[in-house]
Amino acid sequence: MSPRPATPAGRLGVIRRFRRLLAARALPIARRVAAASPARPPGDAGAAEVLASEVLPLLAAARFLEREARFWLRPQKLGTRGRPLWLTGSRAVIHRVPHGLVAVIAAGNYPLLLPGVQVLQALAAGNDVALKPAPAGVEAARWLCELLGEAGLPPGALRVTGSAVEDAGPLLSGPDAADLVLVTGGERAAAAVAEACARRLVPCVIEASGCDAAFVLAGADLGLAASAVAWGLRLNGSQTCIAPRRVLVDAAVGEGLEAELCRALPAGRRVPVDPAAMAAAAPRIEAALAAGARAVRGSWTPGAADAEPYVIVDADPSMELLRTDSFAPVTAICAGLAGPDGLVDADAACPYALGASVFGPAREASALAGRLRAGVVVVNDLIAPTADPRLPFGGTGSSGHGVTRGAEGLIAMTRPRVLIRRGGAFRPHYLPPADADAPAFAALAAGLHGEGLLRRLRSLKAALPGLKAIADRGKAAGGSGSGAPLATEDAAPQEREAEAEAFARLG
Fold first, then answer.
1. Quick one: what percent of the chain has pLDDT higher than 90?
2. What residues contact 259, with CB distance under 8 A and at least 6 apart?
């Protein structure tokens, strides 16, 4: 194991210095990261997109840890409130302890932000980290490692592996395998990682992409909805796991959304794309068109590194195009759905449930959001608000399980260790059971948990003789049951008083 900073203050000091270093070098780093990504616009437009979508959110995530990590990782001392009466004298503390080695198996679409937040959270929680970048993320991983080292992270606390698929193998099995695995990627790769973790019985957190829906309700601002969908399709060459792939439209909206979306996506305007992603999407587009859908926007030449975003209309939720994750700039509109129930049913046809957005009046949109399966739902916007560092991020179904980011993501980098201290010498559970104990315990159960105050009081009164007999047997036994069942020697005065009052209620 590495000589990682042993105290929260030491770990968070490294993160604070990292944040300041990244802020000071933001533009040159953004330029290098953008240049390594085929999905970013050329020139400083690409750097601007990296700054807005990766650097600024990563800086905010670092500051969140500086401010909040101590609180969420602090030992939690439990008082007497909620403690069972029969455990009088015991006190407990829940500690959050690091897993040990955390493996971050990263995707290449946001190579600085996504693994960066996970690495920082794992380090803040006291873990060592092994980062396996995607091929498109090697440059970003190098910068993460370099800046953290310059910020004072000890050698070995963070190591970067190769970017090939086989480089993940030693992290999943063998003597140097990780104690917790975080994987961001496609469904097949994530399932393979989950299977490897299951064989070793180690936990994993999986973000396996999505096929997100944008819901458009009656009364929605159609211009806003169309602008949001168009932006989500273009952002990062559409290589965003929560980009809008499905647009599910209430029948009351009519046909206005199609016209608005065509205005927001002018014909001939192209975006950088991953040719492999487009090649994978092409047969699904063709199948949808053969089944009766229409393309009102979209063109791509096989092998080309740019494309006009596709807008498919008259689509059906059962089409493969609407049931498969993709990094191609393609969205499909399902119109004429019968109110909230129809929208929810159409959404359920897709196995992915990562994110969603709902456009419409606030009350109706929030009501629909509460019925969706997605882990992150945004009302009257999409994608951008999910970068809030306070929020967890994760999905369900084919989108994976568990969360990263936010307080919940930080806590996931730890496991609970419970310390229980028992004071005094009274240990009635050490006594051998007697026939008379059964009615006493049954009466105690009815008295503590039964229905009706008077019945409970009568049950407690009925339990007293048997409980007193147990105490007397303990005294006679000497070690196992000696001492009074009230205050303990090491209990705080207020705890002794609470325990005395609790036993008094039995009388």
1. 86
2. none
